[in-house]
Amino acid sequence: MGEEIIAVTREIIANRLNYLTQEMGLSLAKTAYSVLFAENRDFSCAIFDREGYLLALGSFVPTHQGGMQGSMEYVLDKWGSKGLQDGDIFMHNDALHKGSHCQDITLFKPIFFDETHVATGCCVAHHNDTGGMRPRSYCPDAEEIYQEGIRFPAVKLFKRGELQQDILDIYMTNVRMPDSERGDLYAQLSTLSVAEKAIKELCERYGSAEKIINYFRSIQDHAEGRMREGIKSLKEGDYEAESYVDHDGWEEKSWKIKVTVSVKHKPQPHLIIDYSGSDPQARGFVNSYFYNTRANAWAAVYTVVDPYVHKCYGSMRPVEFNVPMGTIVNAKPPAPIGACTTESGFVAADVVALALGKARPQIATGVWGGSFGGLGIYGENPRHHKNSRIKERWASGFTDAGGVGGGARATKDGIGTVTDICGGPITIPNVEIMEANFPVTYRYRKLVSDGGGPGKFRGSPGYEVAIQPEGPMHFTCLCNKGYHGAEGIFGGKEGSRWKLEIRDAETDSILKELPPKVVLHPISPMEIIHINVPGGGGYGHPFERDPERVKEDVIEGYVSIDMAKKDYGVVINPETLEIDVDTTEKLRHGKGDQ
């Protein structure tokens, strides 16, 4: 009976912690200054135990998981447990010291009860600009990390509750939009107060700091056990997968990321994730350092092995890594890594998910559309003269290219126009919000026909979007899947590829095709930025798809009549939209004219 009560109490506390992280995120969204925070929600909130291990993570950005864990590790490396004082708040965004790219600023607040350090509240958020050689700190032409933005190696923004004004001043002096950055930073700070209040209430409810600390350890151990059970359900063996990162800002080529995932059942279930065979690091900013690669691999493991396991460090104890130094997934400093989260990081997760799917086909998916597609537009704001409150210069990110196609599943088609697995619940703001806040006009957003990877189950298409600026401006763009589409699995085909074009604003005709990475490209108000977002990979051979489902796809506009015949072997009458059964059967059995 005692063990049952402890187990029930542990689950109550674990779920309270998860809900707490959601509360923190709600506070951040409600107090945010920028559209990026309030609408896109490119942030994550978490609770760490007193030993510095991730204890609870809400439904936020999966790629932030390992980023926060690595950052917390460095806080303890630098300050030690005795360096964490009541009222301290640490600020960290240094990839050279276990952090993520510089835009992901992480704040940590140690939480004390009865003078005992019980836990640490954490919030990481992607900021619009953290300095560097290009607006928004995305620098496709960077050759070393020092060009990409200001870095804070676990400095104390607050000491015993007192703001360190010099640290804040250094930050505000090095960014292009200090008002926005200050407002968003303060929004992050508000989440830490929410965490502190709730953890103290938890301690009061259960009577002591020591009792809560013991429950936290139990949560970690239970999650580890459940993850090992999940790994045990996978077939033992070595499973390989590979995919590519396209264009590093300098060269129009691809870099291979290869993984071998070994599923072991003895001496106890565990995984070995080995990225040997990946290409050497790039000159440009698509490289990743180890902690970002680990973060994205963890996200894939969570998703595939047991999506319901409590997301904490304990559940990742059964996972071992081999990530060779000098490769694109573990570059030697000071290699630039500004696009590591959405380029090499996403692919590092894709290949792990693809490999694990081979160990249990019923949970496998085709690869999702990949990169989040960072589009930033900069210039003088034409609305400035109409309203003195509007800044003369403006810069903002647009997450429209995040609406990628989901990979097909064992029993269903891919989920449509969503953020990649590692992007989590990052959203794409409504057109009205973007047009109200920024000097742009959206001409259209619409699904890409023939965008989903063909298969027994079809990958979802991404969509295409056209954005017209109100005045002369420049834009920087980064995306993947331009030279290689999202891979299918078990005979499924790749999804449609990324396209970036300049089009005529009146005729919508193509004026210029651009590579997946561009930096400060000029755009006039008589032109539009046109993007085709990649589709997801298919599952199973396309000729195994029910012809009636292919017909439905044609009627709904997902698949054209020509591609229904070419990819699926289904012949449809263009006038009646009925299936030509005899010709379809001949074609699918290799007797028709292909």
| Sheet/helix structural class | alpha+beta
Low-confidence stretches: 1-5
Overall geometry comes to: globular
Spatial strand order of the main sheet: 2-1-5-4-3-6-7
Q: How far is the first residue's CA from the last residue's CA?
A: 69 Å
Strand content: 15-25%
Query: Can you count the beta strands?
Result: 20
What is the count of DSSP helices, taking H or I runs of 4+ residues?
12
Tally of structural domains: 3
Q: Largest sheet, described in full?
A: 7 strands, antiparallel
Rg (C-alpha, Å): 24 Å
Secondary structure elements and pairings:
Layout: H1 2-31, H2 35-40, E1 43-49, E2 54-57, H3 64-79, E3 89-92, E4 104-113, E5 116-126, E6 155-159, E7 162-163, H4 165-173, H5 178-206, H6 209-232, E8 237-246, E9 254-264, E10 270-274, H7 290-305, E11 319-322, H8 344-359, E12 374-380, E13 393-398, H9 431-437, E14 440-447, E15 463-469, E16 473-478, E17 499-504, E18 510-514, E19 517-523, E20 527-532, H10 547-556, H11 561-568, H12 581-588
Parallel strand pairs: 10-11
Antiparallel strand pairs: 1-2, 1-5, 3-4, 3-6, 4-5, 6-7, 8-9, 9-10, 12-13, 12-16, 14-15, 15-20, 16-19, 17-18, 17-20
Helix pairs in contact: 1-5, 1-6, 3-7, 4-5, 7-8
